[in-house]
Design a protein that fits this description.
The chain is mainly alpha-helical. It has one domain. It contains four helices and two strands. The protein has helices at residues 8-12, 15-48, 50-53, 63-108; strands at 56-58, 61-62. Strands 1-2 form a two-stranded antiparallel ribbon. A hairpin with a 2-residue loop joins strand 1 (56-58) and strand 2 (61-62).
């Protein structure tokens, strides 16, 4: 089976492709901005609010330790959110676009 010759320049200008790239970029930027802000809250909080970070929650566990552990929870949550959205929306849109591009290439061949 031969692979159809896809016109990549034309595919890159397809409105559906441009819309998919824009949606994905906006979504990824939002996740990245949130994660960077959340990440830097740990060193900034430790530097500028040491009293808050040292607040005992129970036993030897303080707010700073819980916040540090929450970094892992947030990272895994972001990965889960991205995967869920990619599987539901981005993958379906790219698959439909791929199908149409392959069909167009087959018609030209």
């Amino acid at each position: 089976m031969t692979t159809p010759n896809i016109d990549w320049a034309r595919a890159g200008q397809d409105p559906r492709f441009l819309e998919l790239v824009a949606k994905k970029r906006k979504f990824l930027f939002s996740l990245m901005a949130f994660s960077v802000v959340f990440y830097f809250l740990l060193p900034l909080g430790a530097a500028y609010a040491p009293g808050l970070w040292a607040t005992k929650i129970f036993g030897v566990v303080n707010f700073g330790l819980l916040f540090a552990i929450s970094q892992f929870v947030v990272a895994w949550s972001i990965a889960f959110i991205y995967t869920r959205r990619a599987n539901r929306e981005f993958d379906a849109a790219s698959e439909a676009l791929k199908r149409d591009l392959l069909a167009q290439a087959a018609q030209r061949a």
